[in-house]
Amino acid sequence: MNTFKYSGIANNKTIGLSAGKTGKGKCIVLTKTNAKSINKPVKAVSTIPLKFQKKRSAKVLNNLVGTLKYRADLASAAQARFNRLHEATYARGSKPQSNRRGKVASHSFGKRSSFKFGKTVASA
Asked: pLDDT tens digit string along 59-97?
């Protein structure tokens, strides 16, 4: 969106949401600039990892952006982007399969057969 409202060059206070990683796993990272230290690049940008549940992270985001009057005009756009990033980052089915062990697991993996009541039946 190439408008004055969303421009990071025209506004001193900017907000960014991106998918990132922490030491333990993946999370969504909120990046915001401090308007007072805009000439000091190291102090100008602060990152906040949103690694909680979806409702709690959304509340933190709403408090930082909208309620504390940082950039209340970007609150709805930031919430929409957070929802899209959360669905992409924590998609259903993205978890690895559990380690199944035992007799059933040895028959269900590796071979194209199904295990039923102690007998191995080959499937085509």
From this structure: 988 888 887 778 888 888 889 999 998 888 877 655 545
Q: CATH second-level architecture of 15-89?
A: 2-Layer Sandwich (3.30)
How do the domains of the chain map onto residue ranges? 15-89
Residues with Cβ within 8 Å of 75's Cβ and at least 6 positions away in sequence, in order, are 62, 65, 66
Bridge-based pairing state of the strands 119-122 and 113-116 = antiparallel
Q: Residues near 71 by Cβ (< 8 Å), separated by ≥ 6?
A: 11, 13, 14, 15, 65
49 pLDDT higher than 80? yes
CA 37 vs CA 45, 67, 68, 95: distances in Å = 9, 22, 19, 41
Residue 37 CA to its chain's centroid (Å):
28
